[in-house]
């Protein structure tokens, strides 16, 4: 029987159902490309930029007709278009395999067809979780076909096919410490807007869509606390997150000034995209950013991250260039929090997961993190500058906040801490921390400071003997700064 006759036969069967007859009158069935918003009223996530639904590559024709009917039933106004498109893409794969089989009518779809598709998927070396995604899509599709009276396919084959699958610890892709540190060291190379995007996403653990769609006025203050308001990407509900790190408030306000400076009141998002650069321009300056009043796409954000990695040669310890994806930041926040001993329910609330089980998809447990290290991290600290003055007293509230605080600065010194903001230009006093206003020490650094003071005094004797006046002046300044720090820290320790 020809494809035309098969489609006609299917239409005849479907038309017996009164509800189906109304669907068959929809003029969209005559088109293979539907507009998500205009035709179906679906919600378009601007960072996805998915404007259409394409049925062109689906065959046989009778199967394409069923998928179109299924889409009409599933496409409720306001539903994210990406949810529908993802499901159709899975059904397209079944269509691709189906077109190679000797199936001459819709009634030919049975358990043997599903067995064949399962074997074909396994040859693709897909993850088990991906294969289960196909099972779920097919089960939903054929169950709907049966309930709507379009096609009666037995779906008992799928019973027992669904099970909870959690990735192994070493399969969870989070950003390792050595990569994180290289990001800190080179962050200033990125355009300022991209710097702030990275600081926000890695501090709050946002989904990329939530970051890219943050509104210009997302920063709110209530009862002395600061919050960021956002729309949860997966369920489309308004939510807010408490900001524990004061520097992040400054980062957001700086970005608001940036948007206001470039677009005045003509743009309502916190972050924007860059204008397209020609091939020659990209070759000359791959990190050039020309702001444009449009939402950055997820693909573009990932491309920026990886151009950054290539430009700065950000590698793992084994020398492999790191490939960034936006979701790695979210997994890293979960991993750091869990390894810091934070209650899973707190992490669930922070990441806005519906169930605690979701955490198993995010956390890579590091068994080398010991309680002693956490206790050391949580100690109160009195910071002394190079003049020997106590300029700050810090009491960590919890391990997560302390880890986040440390990531907001360029912690690249041999000991002590560099409190130079990661947003500032490269350090001008590299390897001369003793002379820098941003360098801070605590009583934990006393043994190292004493060793350095002894070394400097020995070098001074040699320099004086050789008559090197300029070097002598520099070393005397270093010795005085070290003495100032030692004296202040010994008093603090007492």
Summarize the structure in short.
It contains 19 helices and 11 strands. The chain has 494 residues and is mainly alpha-helical. A 3-stranded antiparallel beta sheet has the order 3-4-5, with helices on one face. Strands 1-2 form a two-stranded antiparallel sheet.
**Helical fraction:** 40-55%
Please tell me how large the radius of gyration is: 30 Å
Low-confidence stretches: 365-374
Give the overall shape.
elongated
> Structural class, please?
mainly alpha
Corresponding CATH architecture of the largest domain: Orthogonal Bundle
Average of per-residue pLDDT values: 79
Give the H and E element order. Answer: HHEHEHHHHHHHEEEHEHEHHHHEEHEEHH
Number of strands: 11
Family: Belongs to the 'phage' integrase family.
InterPro entries: DNA_brk_join_enz (IPR011010), Integrase-like_cat_sf (IPR013762), Integrase_catalytic (IPR002104), Integrase_recombinase_N (IPR010998), Tyrosine_recombinase_XerCD (IPR050090)
Domain Tyr recombinase: 170-379
Coiled coil: 446-492
Question: Can you walk me through this structure?
Answer:
This protein has about 500 residues and is mainly alpha-helical. The chain has 3 domains: about 5-160, no CATH class; about 175-360, Orthogonal Bundle (hpI Integrase, Chain A); about 375-494, no CATH class. About 50% of the residues lie in helices and about 10% in strands. The protein contains 19 helices and 11 strands. The strands form 5 sheets. A 3-stranded antiparallel beta sheet has the order 3-4-5, with helices on one face. A two-stranded antiparallel ribbon has the order 1-2. Helix 9 (about 190-205) packs antiparallel against helix 11 and helix 9 packs across helix 14. The radius of gyration is 30 Å and the shape is elongated. It starts with a helix and ends with a helix.
């Amino acid at each position: 029987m020809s494809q035309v006759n098969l489609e006609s036969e299917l239409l005849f069967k479907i038309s017996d159902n009164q509800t189906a007859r109304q669907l068959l009158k929809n003029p969209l069935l005559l088109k293979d490309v539907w507009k998500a918003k205009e035709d179906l009223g679906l919600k378009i996530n601007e960072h996805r930029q998915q404007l259409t639904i394409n049925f062109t590559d689906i065959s046989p024709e009778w199967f394409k007709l069923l998928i179109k009917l299924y889409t009409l039933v599933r496409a409720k106004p306001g539903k994210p278009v990406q949810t529908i498109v993802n499901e159709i893409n899975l059904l397209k794969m079944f269509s691709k395999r189906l077109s190679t089989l000797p199936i001459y009518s819709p009634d030919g779809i049975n358990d043997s067809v599903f067995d064949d598709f399962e074997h074909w998927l396994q040859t693709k070396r897909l993850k088990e979780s991906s294969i289960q995604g196909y099972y779920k899509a097919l089960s939903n599709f054929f169950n709907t076909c049966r309930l709507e009276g379009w096609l009666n396919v037995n779906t008992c084959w799928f019973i027992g096919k669904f099970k909870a699958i959690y990735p192994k610890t070493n399969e969870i892709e989070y950003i390792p410490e050595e990569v994180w540190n290289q990001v800190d060291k080179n962050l200033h190379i990125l355009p300022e807007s991209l710097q702030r995007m990275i600081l926000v996403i890695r501090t709050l653990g946002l989904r990329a869509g939530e970051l890219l769609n943050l509104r210009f006025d997302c920063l709110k203050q209530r009862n002395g606390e600061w919050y960021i308001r956002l729309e949860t990407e997966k369920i489309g509900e308004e939510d807010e997150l408490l900001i524990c790190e004061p520097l992040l408030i400054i980062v957001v306000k700086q970005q608001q000034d940036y948007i206001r400076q470039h677009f005045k009141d003509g743009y309502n998002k916190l972050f924007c995209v860059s204008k397209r650069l020609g091939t020659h321009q990209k070759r000359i300056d791959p990190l050039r950013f020309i702001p444009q009043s449009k939402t950055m796409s997820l693909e573009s954000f990932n491309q920026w991250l990886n151009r950054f990695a290539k430009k700065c040669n950000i590698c793992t310890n084994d020398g492999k260039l790191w490939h960034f994806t936006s979701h790695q930041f979210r997994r890293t926040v979960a991993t750091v929090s869990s390894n810091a001993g934070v209650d899973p329910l707190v992490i669930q609330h922070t990441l806005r997961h519906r169930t605690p089980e979701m955490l198993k998809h995010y956390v890579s447990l590091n068994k080398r993190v010991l309680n002693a290290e956490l206790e050391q991290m949580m100690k109160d600290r009195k910071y002394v500058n190079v003049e020997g003055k106590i300029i700050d007293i810090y009491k960590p509230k919890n391990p997560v906040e302390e880890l986040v605080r440390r990531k907001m600065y360029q912690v690249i010194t041999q000991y002590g801490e560099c409190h130079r903001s990661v947003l500032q230009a490269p350090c001008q006093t590299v390897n001369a921390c003793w002379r820098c206003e941003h360098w801070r020490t605590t009583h934990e650094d006393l043994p190292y400071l004493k060793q350095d003071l002894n070394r400097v005094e020995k070098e001074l004797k040699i320099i004086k003997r050789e008559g090197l006046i300029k070097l002598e002046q520099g070393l005397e300044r270093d010795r005085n700064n070290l003495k100032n720090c030692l004296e202040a820290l010994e008093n603090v320790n007492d």
